[in-house]
Amino acid sequence: MPEDEIEVPKELREFMLEGAKETFLGQKNGANKQYRYGNLHIREYDKKFLVHTDKIDPRKDPVGHLVHDAPEVLIGLACAIFGGSQITKKLNKNSKKKSIASGLLSSIICGYLGYSITKKIKNYLE
After folding, report:
1. Residue 61 within any structural domain of the chain
2. What predicted TM-score, i.e. pTM, was given to this entire model?
3. Is 114 exposed, middle or buried (0-12, 13-18, 19+ CB in 10 A)?
4. Disulfide: which of 42, 101, 107, 116 matches 80 by Cβ 3.0-4.6 Å?
5. DSSP code, position 93
6. Same-domain status, 47 and 85
């Protein structure tokens, strides 16, 4: 759990802001549901809520949110696009089927590595 996240046990009381909207934006991290209320990101689990504040509301500025709150996603995508395409160029020049398959696989691997490394760095710096 990141340092800036607050845990609210459900047994204390049901916690939900009036006006909070259920959303698919954000990493669920195993939550049953997640909600947004402005910059507030609320994850609901069986016995607790985890709440944190994002710098930028992704519903209003998705790119700004990626840059400031979730750079690991942005870097993962960039690695998938650029890393995958570069590896594919070097591996297969003749077979179109092999090229597509290796391109997809190398994009997934590069994207995951970029995401994972950036996430670890981000968590270390927090």
Report:
1. no
2. 0.68
3. buried
4. 107
5. S
6. no
